[in-house]
Design goal:
This protein is of the alpha/beta class and 387 residues long. The protein folds into two domains: 3-64 and 348-386, Urease, subunit C, domain 1 (Roll), CATH 2.30.40; 65-340, TIM Barrel. Helix content is 35%, strand content 23%. The strands form three sheets. It has a seven-stranded mixed sheet with strand order 3-2-1-4-14-15-16, with no helix packed on it. The two termini are 20 Å apart. The protein binds N-(iminomethyl)-L-glutamic acid and fe (iii) ion.
Length: 387
């Protein structure tokens, strides 16, 4: 096993509290990578010898972004819907059906190419782990193939048969829930780690969500929930009740919702690119952070409510619009994402962690929010390999 020494790291974000502060930042640092893992981290002057070495020229290094929420398996786009929103039309869950029609008609190769394109976009913007949901198939065969395609790109695959009730079940939502908890789950489960439900007016209610999440759990999947995006509702409470890893969106919360997240440890996933692209009020990140809730930042990249694949964009929004500090935003985009996916091997750069790291064309991570819209990613390593 050959080792690689990376030196010339002007600022290294480890997310290791042992190094002080939220981000465990080390200046003038070095890292040794071996066998795809971090073998050593410390001051450049104390660095051990390695088989090969590279000087990063005083750039900043951060843990690769962990994007814990995306919908990449789809065909077509909804640019016209976005344009209409910008002239005042509200976003509604019903738009999902447009993408469902296009996705059902697409060949497997076309769906695979779409995921490959978007994952490449993400990698180019510093993301090293991405969760990918199904949810634009909504038939047994189309959900199963969506997840099979997603599984070629990530271990973090999520069965979202309960995205909306498809048109052919409009008069029989209970029949659709039976399909989602029965034959569709049977076909999807072998490709999925997670089960998710869009709990919202126009999508699924609390009882339907409980039934779907419990069925998924019985089939060996772990739960995550789309909660409280378009208005107050039962999503967060259901997520806490079933022991979900994450409640994502969290745009409209009651005090009881915030208390429930804090006391259960369910991660709140904040997806500010969605509020940007739907011109909606941003979630109150400070209220969650001040209550001690673990916050993850993710893109929610999808063709409808928000089509950005950029974690740096989400960080800039979190800082400028949601009053997170740059350190909180970066932590939530890395360690927070890992917590949301219940992963302990990623989201930090400490010995033993997977060597997933992003090199910035900048002297410090502060530039991510300070220079919004600027391509600052110099290199991304996944499992110690440049990608
Ligand atoms: O997370 N909320 C549900 N799903 C996506 C939107 C999907 C769509 O509009 O196509 C979301 O925002
Ligand atoms: Fe989503």
């Amino acid at each position: 096993m050959s080792s690689l020494l990376l030196t010339g790291i002007g600022s290294l974000v480890t997310n290791d509290p042992a190094h002080g502060g939220l981000l465990g930042e080390l200046l003038d640092a070095a890292i040794v990578v071996e066998g795809g893992r971090i073998a050593w981290v410390g001051s450049r002057r104390a660095a051990p010898a390695a088989d090969s070495s590279a000087d990063l020229g005083d750039r900043a290094v951060i843990p690769g972004f962990v994007d814990s929420h995306s919908h990449l398996v789809f065909a077509g786009d909804r640019a016209e819907e976005f344009a209409a929103r910008m002239t005042g039309q509200p976003y509604s869950a019903g738009g999902i059906r447009t993408t469902v029609n296009a996705t059902r008609e697409a060949a497997d190769e076309q769906l695979t190419a779409n995921v490959a394109r978007l994952v490449a976009e993400m990698r180019g913007q510093g993301t090293t782990t991405v969760e990918i949901k199904s949810g634009y198939g909504l038939t047994v065969a189309d959900e199963a193939r969506s997840l099979a395609i997603a599984a070629d790109f990530t271990d973090e695959t999520t069965y979202l048969g309960a995205h909306v009730v498809p048109a052919e079940f409009a008069d029989d939502p209970a029949g659709y829930v039976d399909l989602v908890t029965g034959p569709m789950l049977d076909a999807a489960a072998k490709y999925a780690k997670w089960v998710d439900v869009f709990v919202e007016r126009g999508a699924f209610d609390a009882d339907q969500a409980r039934a779907i999440l419990r069925a998924g759990q019985a089939a060996g999947l772990s739960a995550r929930v789309h909660a409280n995006q378009l208005g107050e509702g039962p999503g967060v409470q259901v997520a806490c009740e079933v022991g979900a890893a994450a409640a994502d969106h969290c745009t409209f919360l009651t005090d009881a919702d915030v208390d429930a997240l804090a006391s259960t440890g369910v991660v709140a996933g904040l997806l500010p690119a969605i509020e940007f692209s739907t011109r909606s009020p941003y979630p109150d990140a400070r209220r969650l952070l001040d209550a001690g809730v673990t916050v993850a930042l993710a893109t929610d990249c999808n063709p409808g409510s928000g089509y950005s694949s950029s974690m740096p964009f989400c960080i800039a929004l979190a800082v400028r619009e949601m009053h997170m500090t740059p350190a909180e935003a970066l932590w939530s985009a890395t360690a927070g994402g890992a917590a949301s996916l219940r992963r302990t091997d990623i989201g930090h750069l400490t010995p033993g962690a997977r060597a997933d790291l992003t090199v910035l064309n900048a002297p410090s991570h502060l530039h991510l929010a300070y220079r919004p819209g600027v391509p600052l990613i110099s290199k991304t390593f996944v499992g110690g390999r440049p990608v």
